[in-house]
Design a protein that fits this description.
The protein is built from one helix and seven strands; from the N terminus they run H-E-E-E-E-E-E-E. By secondary structure, it is mostly beta strands.
């Protein structure tokens, strides 16, 4: 089990209180994922893809994810109808689609993805690691329909 006081992937509060604190080191997580397949320990192993970290604090108003796309992978064009999303490139590079012209992405790029706008992502040869932040969606509730 990860130690929340030392593990950079952890977002747990060892003291059980809501206090400002550092949750993780995005650069270290991204670098570890990129080097996972290149360390020679497992010939042919690929670096992890998908969510490398998620914000999990109870009572939060935001959701955040560190996501890694492997080299030349894509997130196909889609539209988020309800949420604006802020995307910050942490490592690698790629291209943002959805604007009149494709826009290059590099570490440090900060992107606003407005709700209702089509968008796509394409990772470059080094892959693409990015942090997304948006308002938390309310959880689903089980109950009786009131429109009968």
């Amino acid at each position: 089990m990860a130690d929340p006081t030392t593990d950079p992937r952890s977002s747990g509060d060892p003291h059980g209180t809501d206090v400002p604190r550092v949750l993780c080191d995005l650069g270290a997580l991204s670098a570890a994922a990129e080097s996972a397949g290149a360390d020679g320990a497992d010939e042919g192993a690929a670096a992890p893809a998908g969510a490398l970290w998620r914000l999990t604090e109870p009572g939060r108003q935001l959701d955040a994810n560190l996501v890694r796309l492997p080299p030349d992978a894509r997130v196909e064009a889609h539209t988020e109808g309800d949420l604006d999303v802020l995307l910050a490139v942490v490592a690698g590079g790629g291209t943002l689609g959805g604007a009149p012209d494709p826009q290059p992405l590099a570490p440090g790029s900060l992107v606003w993805l407005p709700h209702g706008a089509a968008r796509s992502l394409a990772a470059g040869a080094a892959g693409l690691s990015y942090l997304t932040v948006h308002r938390r969606r309310p959880g689903m509730k089980i109950g009786r329909r009131t429109d009968t």
